[in-house]
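Summary for the steering committee. The consortium agreed at its last meeting that each partner would contribute one worked example illustrating the joint modelling workflow. Our contribution is presented below. We chose a case with several input lines so that the handling of multiple components could be demonstrated. No manual editing was applied between input and output; the record is shown as generated.
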Amino acid sequence: MARTCNLYCVYCHNPPTGEKRDPLKIAAALKKRGVKAVSLEGGGEPTAGGDFFEWIKALSGAGVKRFMLSTNAVALSDAGFCRRAVGKIEYFTVNFPSHREDVYAKITRSVKFRAALKGLLNIKALGAEEKIRFFHIISAANYRLLPEFAMWAARNFPRAAFVNFTFVRNKGRALKAGRIVPRYTQVSPFIKLALAALKLKGYKAVVQNIPLCALKDFEGFSFEFQRWRRGDRVLEEGIDPKAACPACARCTLEPACCGARPDYLKVHGAGELKASRKDPRSITPERF
Ligand code: SF4
Ligand code: SF4
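What follows is the complete predicted structure of the assembly.
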């Protein structure tokens, strides 16, 4: 539904195209399929086009009852807009790449940190903190701060639903931003510290797009592992298939692992991947 964005994130892998789509046409198509729940996301920032509530109205008219929103929360800094949105949205997945203003500015190439934070605080002030899901993309610009971010989230938004740490994809704008993709082995100690800190606080967390060998002893936090445990396909629809690599061919964790990403191998190769002999059924999934 989105066509523009009020940020210019260095890692955006699905940047806006400016193409406007007709809410009524999309609503009619969803009605035909009997869709009752939608996630408002993709191709930009859904709240930045000026027609956000037109979309909600059109989709509600077509029978959609439940709305999830992926947002950077900048527009939610407007208290009236936020109040209306909280009344309609079941979950806000908030792309918030740093709790530090200077790092946020570098990643989003914007001066919108305070607006985004205000958006989060407005949701909280409206009694809807439980609706916040932090979506924290791990990149070269912020991986050393993962434990600090975890503590910040737990301290300032203790009732948020969870933190999702997702490893940056080497796609879209990231391809033009040299060295934005860190190595798995660089990130590994920091992500483990962040996960341990959140677990000690009783805060839910999940990790996406990082192979299990980079999460040794923390595999239960892997989103893809949890999908496998539930009996779902390990990779979500629309995600590129795993890259073939010799370590994965020998690894007992392979069925439950997102594997090495083809876009990652282009920059760092497969040298860090280590075949395991662990039985994936012996891993306990973490709370999520
Ligand atoms: S990642 Fe999201 S917030 Fe950032 S530029 Fe892309 S669409 Fe906008
Ligand atoms: S070696 Fe391959 S299959 Fe095994 S944990 Fe690493 S990436 Fe996953």
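The two ends are 28 Å apart (CA to CA). Residues 23-208 form a domain with the TIM Barrel fold (CATH 3.20.20.70).
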